[in-house]
Q: What sequence folds into this?
């Protein structure tokens, strides 16, 4: 997701954080206005549950 206006509420600005975890590129975006949230792994949108498995120690 690119930075800019929220695609959900079309009002809020987006905040984005990118990181590398276990050799995978993760990014998180959220709208400061409506609090919509999105996770991306290697450029593809994924559910939060699939991200948790990457960052939890086993």
A:
């Amino acid at each position: 997701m690119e930075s800019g206006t929220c695609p959900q509420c079309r009002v809020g600005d987006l905040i984005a954080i990118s990181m590398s975890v276990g050799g995978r590129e993760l990014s998180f975006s959220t709208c400061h206005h409506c609090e919509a949230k999105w996770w991306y792994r290697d450029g593809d949108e994924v559910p939060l549950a699939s991200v948790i498995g990457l960052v939890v120690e086993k």
About this structure: The CA atoms of residues 9 and 34 lie 7 Å apart.
